[in-house]
């Protein structure tokens, strides 16, 4: 490799200037604080959870009812430890942020204990989560004529992938776990192109087909048996600001979608008070900011097309 | 790590309840069956194939005509073994699903023999596949003024990445290989945001620019020299149901795009009987459900814009 | 594994035919040339750079002002070596392409020296880059009511991820480094669904929310404090061709967005002469090919919706 | 990298000559045969077995009686699969060698079935093996005043490492498994410098201190509570040849060491009919080829030393 | 893989029997206790330390005085964390063993604080350790006519490897760190065949040539400039037992070797009161249990050889 | 992890003191010099070479005459590149050492060219090397009644492992390649406990049984069909010093062993003028410093043993 050492010594001055910038621009560092949760470990946790939720599809083969208990028991045990550590870090992070303290060693055991309680509460939610995910798999099979069977859906449908991570992240959101649900949902977003905020409330038998570009906001409420296509946005209409001009955080900003609704590709539905009534159908590219009653079919008046001969 | 053993013992009961759910909710497990194809191995196979199709760009450097035969011969030999095993698993999976049997050892050699035949048929398709991919690379260069050369396209264009995987997956689809083509196409989808069903029939010199959000359905037929942009959907208009209300699978549900057509961003073309005639141009955001003759330029009557001064 | 050797010998003939195709279809190989830059190393470089730009979030924990100098100095030193090698390869690639020569050993040291100069120029840009990225982080916090704090943004916002890579790639684009900026931007595109050409000029305090499907073209010029949403395209209107019918490369083909503009989801703004004036707001799904003056709010005349009762 | 292609083409001729040598010197290849057992997998198997035999010391922490069943059950299940495959390969190798056949597909299932039976027979031996290894650990503690406790012995005594592998390999030797026991014992030899043939019969409470250079032959028989030091050889006196001058294989060629014997460093005891009687002590560097009765202390008449002043 | 499930279910019973054996044979498990130090991390620590002691030879290249501070500072910082954790585990292990308690959470911070103090004390010893290791390297060069230079010694002499680990382990032994020094010395033993107890006191300029089979006991005291060859044992003569027949631990059991002594291959020197006087030479295969004065040359009266003609 | 930052800041001062020691103790650093050969790459090279010398035993399975050419050709091609780089580094290292220069960029291409020539000369030696290794394998089978076949020897005999590395290292020694042969031989030493200097001249059909502790010196000359056992030393009698008291390097210091000689365990043969005549047998533990004529059997007058009853 090149070796003009005078040039290289110049790098030492650069190092000093970069480190100085950590003082000047202090809010995009994480220096002198307790360790944050680890993105890499959180992704591992998601992979372990998928092995439990859908056993036999990926990492481990030759599973049967005679050996699956060992496999699951061992995973659960390892997850208990990983989750406890990551949750303790997230809870302490939130505490330090709130009280403006640097990492100290006090309360260490308290955060580990709280992390462990949260880990167990979370793990206890898995059997019910499998029940609801089974309805999502079935909904995908019923909704896509190209699907050859349930296994294909579990193996490769990005919509199911996104919903699996969402149901995990939403459980943690409801447990008020900081930071971790969002790390999970953005990892899923990067894998699938589907962006579901962990706060969204989504009923069983939910199916997203193709999925790229879907956005589902934090305060959405979605009923049973809803089906949506690629590019659908369930978003906020505008953001309320308070008297000081700051964004108001925490209100319902995203729509309600009732049972049995179908929303076709690239439709946009906005606003916290917008309700799409039961069994309604929203056509492709529709742009809605108001509620519709149940059993309504909404389509756009297709813009007129201009055709001319270019030959 | 935390060590309150009473809490941990609670996990044993949880393990039992999860395992019980494998009996109650039996259709999202793969227990007691023959091994499925491995997603990880299939991704490896795709990476090996790209080394053969575009030698010298990625894993291996310093290749020249004097040593490339060894490199390719060794890859082909390894691919023969990997493909044989994965194809045998996919074929046996299909058989077991069809006849409702658990994994038994009968016919083992039959499936391996069928897997090997399919592997060789597939590998024999590679020279012709390179010819058609060379037309795709050329089409990208001709179609994008930002491209500095062919190497940049091979190195980093997601549209070419998607088409490379598609031409592989489509070959296997035509060989009626179960499950594996879909695993391939969804892996490509997660990498590129471009969702092409392995069944789609696509002619040479095809170019997708930018690509995020593109959806191309199973029964599409696309001619020579077609060019499409991000967000384009070539989809189904609606799904036919039979008398029992079940989806009819296997009919032509997606459009036909003839030679030389250009389709701009976010256009949507739907329906199995829709034909876009030769050399036509479909404007951005157009929504088509009917055929147009050759040499037609279709644009939307842009929705009127309302401008108001907000200052 | 299967062992019918006659079938396997058939593979030798296939290998020969594939290698023959490297002669016949010679432009999608890289045989007999100098090594190209390595995609894998370039991704490593990006990960190292993120450790320097946002220390303490990912790979390394327990950093504080007392030890961060060692950590950064060691990374800078390693980056110097990696960048020098990759830049030398890219510069030599460009030279060989231009002069049509195969890889020879002459000028080797010249390219390494030029690579090293470029590496140092690039590394010197990091302190200023941190300053501008801090404004992007702040803009995200101000723009998204769902954000819990700056750390969440650094940890998981795809818009920030895309802008971080863009500001790196754009620096190299301005240094006229071949190939590498595009490898970087397409890697970011595959992670985030956000496609920003390295050539785009983007001011501070830029925020992309959700982001999937965003396309920003090479000759865009974007001011300070601009905010855009998923699916926004800032593209070319059409491509000029010269008298021989070849695409004209190098002109300004993409729009100018002035300070403080907000562009909502799926809006499309096209053309090199289109200017969106300061503090204007472009509504969702708007399709613009003309300039608007400052302080303009543009919304589409929403296409009429047809509602019918389907019950 | 260097690129004088003429020199490189010379490599092709070399490759041909090497491959020709595979025909001419055909007995140090393994070409055209069934796969051999994999050394790497066998080493993995040994590591898994050590986790079962001594749980909690290495790979996995935080084990307790509440979770260890899952951990062990999962390991046993995985070992069943790995052992079955490796044993099937070893048995088939032996068959092909004996009958002079190349790898064919017949009897495939027979070999897997025999491999599985052998795997289960082997796994069933583990509880008894733990009992005897516990006596070895205790013997080490009693025999070495430098040992701080049992954990130190399990963690780092090479003598225990060698005996653990030996008791595994000897079990397989008694099951007449080809090739694999020797691969195991030579792996242990390379780790510890202790060379014990898998065929050696060794009673409980055996302790090897330091160990480097110890050699224990195939037909040794060692009683209970024996202790040996580094450099001890328990070997063959000479090899019998038959009338044709070939070595006679399979007779007892190595000594018998009765209960309670201690053999100090570098002693050499040779011959299949040599018996060291109960509770005897063999001094350092003694060279024995004859039996001694019980309770005998054997020391060498130390060779006279010559001392001279070199100052 | 084989799939006779009845056979596999037999494995469940086996698992239960193995777990039962953890109760019956309870002293070769580590269940329900605090985590032990990790062998894998300790080996990593040794590799990091060698990078600091001999910079530029192995992992990292292109080091020079301009960048080595970052490299070393970063390694020291990481070592502080790893050592603190491992030392805390070792200290707690010792405490739990002594007081017979299972792992509880009390005193956690005390052990970490003690671990950190020990880590800093250890790291502070490194500059002096480099000084003494430089004398060992020089001694090897002076002692071996086959050595081409100092770099060859640092790169590949097992004697230096063993002494490097010994000087590290001995520092920790003197700090009374439990378990870890022995894990280090046995790792070195397995790499080099040289077995030096961490307790041995060894002066500067020590050289071991070839080394396989060397054993140096815990209470050895070795002066300056000593040189020994392969197979040399510096051991205990016999073990004292107390009135109850238990081994007496902690007395001086191994010899004293004064300055300038040379001991040739396979010599054995035993006994805590044996002193080899300054500048003496002990011949190959000599067996000493008594002291010799300074400047003595000791050789064996070579055993008479019997020569007979076998032709 | 612990976080008393005052203690940690103390580490910065320590870092400075360590770096200062790189100036004070300057001869055990490699700072400011060209990169040395890489031990890790050299071990990789040895593993690649074993795949070529004994194809089908380890990394790659399912090789047959139809595909082995690709496998070998690809390995040879990769080895050419790796060897060229490592040899260039070793040659430059020698040059810089000799002329006392720090790493500069001049002559870079000269060293690469010399490295490449040496690489090709080395690779050309492989076919003949296979011929001689085949005689070593046969000698092991003939010499060890415990061997079940040639495959067992190739798979796990440490003596063959040591000889394979030796024949490689000796070829490079004869090519006068600096440093690398010694790195190879010491790696082999650490794996097998057998220490053969790369300079030793060893004829065909050589067999080392068990092997731990064997030492064979640089200027040994060993004939055809020689067999030796564990612990045998073929060493130097004493080292000549010149008038200045420096060791004389480069004379014949180690013995000559003629064809057909057998040397039993722990025998020691010393001196450059010592010749063991054809077909002689040297008994275990014999200590020779003089020549013996052909066909001589040498045994020690076994030291008298003292037996006493200890019961």
UniProtKB/TrEMBL annotation, chains A, B, C, D, E, F:
<dbReference type="GO" id="GO:0009001">
    <property type="term" value="F:serine O-acetyltransferase activity"/>
</dbReference>
<dbReference type="InterPro" id="IPR045304">
    <property type="entry name" value="LbH_SAT"/>
</dbReference>
<dbReference type="GO" id="GO:0008652">
    <property type="term" value="P:amino acid biosynthetic process"/>
</dbReference>
<dbReference type="InterPro" id="IPR053376">
    <property type="entry name" value="Serine_acetyltransferase"/>
</dbReference>
<protein>
    <submittedName>
        <fullName>Serine acetyltransferase</fullName>
        <ecNumber>2.3.1.30</ecNumber>
    </submittedName>
</protein>
<keyword id="KW-0012">Acyltransferase</keyword>
<dbReference type="InterPro" id="IPR042122">
    <property type="entry name" value="Ser_AcTrfase_N_sf"/>
</dbReference>
<keyword id="KW-0028">Amino-acid biosynthesis</keyword>
<keyword id="KW-0808">Transferase</keyword>
<dbReference type="InterPro" id="IPR011004">
    <property type="entry name" value="Trimer_LpxA-like_sf"/>
</dbReference>
């Amino acid at each position: 490799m090149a070796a003009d050492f005078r040039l290289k010594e110049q790098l030492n001055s650069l190092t000093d200037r970069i480190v100085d910038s950590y003082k000047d621009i202090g809010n995009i560092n994480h220096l002198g604080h307790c360790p944050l949760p680890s993105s890499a470990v959180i992704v591992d946790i998601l992979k372990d959870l998928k092995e439990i939720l859908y056993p036999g599809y990926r990492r481990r083969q030759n599973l049967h009812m005679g050996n699956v208990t060992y496999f699951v028991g061992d995973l659960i045990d390892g997850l208990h430890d990983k989750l406890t550590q990551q949750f303790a870090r997230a809870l302490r992070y939130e505490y330090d942020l709130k009280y403006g303290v640097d990492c100290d060693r006090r309360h260490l055991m308290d955060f580990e204990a709280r992390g462990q309680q949260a880990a167990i509460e979370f793990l206890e939610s898995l059997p019910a989560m499998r029940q609801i995910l089974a309805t999502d798999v079935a909904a995908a099979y019923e909704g896509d004529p190209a699907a050859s069977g349930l296994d294909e859906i579990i193996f490769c449908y990005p919509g199911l992938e996104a919903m699996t991570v969402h149901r995990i992240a939403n459980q943690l959101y409801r447990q008020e776990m900081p930071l971790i649900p969002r790390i999970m949902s953005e990892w899923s977003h990067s894998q699938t192109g589907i962006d579901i905020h962990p706060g969204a409330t989504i009923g069983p038998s939910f199916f997203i087909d193709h999925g790229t570009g879907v956005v589902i906001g934090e305060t959405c409420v979605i009923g049973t048996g809803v089906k949506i296509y690629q590019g659908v946005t369930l978003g906020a209409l505008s953001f309320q600001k308070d008297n000081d001009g700051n964004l108001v955080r925490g209100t319902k900003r995203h729509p309600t979608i009732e049972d049995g609704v179908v929303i076709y590709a690239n439709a946009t539905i906005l606003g916290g008070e917008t309700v799409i009534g039961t069994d309604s159908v929203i056509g492709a590219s529709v742009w809605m900011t108001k509620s519709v009653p149940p059993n309504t079919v909404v389509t756009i008046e297709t813009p007129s097309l201009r055709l001319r001969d270019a030959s």
